[in-house]
Amino acid sequence: MNRFNLHGAGLGFRRELLDALKIQVPPTIDFFEIAPENWIDFGGLRARELRAFTERYPFVCHGLSLSIGSPSPLDEMLVKRIKSFMQTHNIKLYTEHLSYCSDDGHLYDLLPIPFTEEAVHYVADRVKRVQDILETRIALENASFYVMAPIAEMSEVEFIRAVLDEADCLLHLDINNIYVNSVNHRFDPTEYLRQMPTERIVYMHMAGHYNETKNLIVDTHAADVIDPVWDLLDQAYTLHGVHPTLLERDFNIPPLNELVLEVEHIARIQQRHAQAQRAQRA
């Protein structure tokens, strides 16, 4: 278990699953992830229902709308509200996408930040401000994107590493996003994985996607995880060790007993790697 109380295999906490989870949380689920923007304004019954889970299980906050790379001013009020939410529910970790989704209004999708030295300094300064407000380090997630950044002085991997180093923050490694981008932008996902900084990885994401065409994948979080993404998770554990890993399912959500099969798949891969590591040490 890491310092954020995360371990094993997790599942995104969705209101569609609440009734089933209140009956029983499957034993293979070790932690949950929650989007604070979807819960932060709830009081009364909804707040009490959530508190019943956060008192019993580790949670992580995964933000949707901070827009860390946006040209618009940083929404410090949102960060302060997230801090209060995390304190109320004893949540230790907040993560956000290394991208932006606002500029004088909310944009339709996550957009890539220009891969430049100037952008590294700009984003790192904003991350450091968020960390100052929250009084803890945050993690940034490698994002899926469908158009290349308009200016690129470095690769995406170099940009990610530079931001993490300058901001001294952590990495939320999304395995499906690597696969999606590798198909859309034609690069080797294993080599991308190999260049990620092991020491900064705090947890990982798994998800499904939609094949728009042979060479275009849309990151929908609305389908089952496919075999090449499972294979990439296996490679991630080989390269970086076993880390807490969570299944995202945001749309087209099946019943809990079906969804948990993929959480169990994550757990089996983790157990296999853990057993192999113990055998090597013996």
Describe, in plain words, how this protein is organized in 3D:
With 282 residues, this protein is of the alpha/beta class. It has one domain: Alpha-Beta Barrel (TIM Barrel), CATH 3.20.20. The protein contains 9 helices and 12 strands. The protein has helices at 18-23, 44-54, 76-89, 117-134, 156-167, 175-185, 189-194, 227-240, 256-281; strands at residues 9-12, 31-34, 59-62, 94-97, 100-102, 106-111, 139-141, 170-174, 201-206, 210-213, 216-218, 245-247. The strands form 3 sheets. An 8-stranded parallel barrel has the order 1-2-3-4-7-8-9-12. Strands 5-6 form a two-stranded antiparallel ribbon. Strands 10-11 form a two-stranded antiparallel ribbon. Helix 4 (117-134) crosses helix 5 (156-167) and helix 8 (227-240) runs parallel beside helix 9 (256-281). The protein is globular and about 50 Å long. The two termini are 21 Å apart.
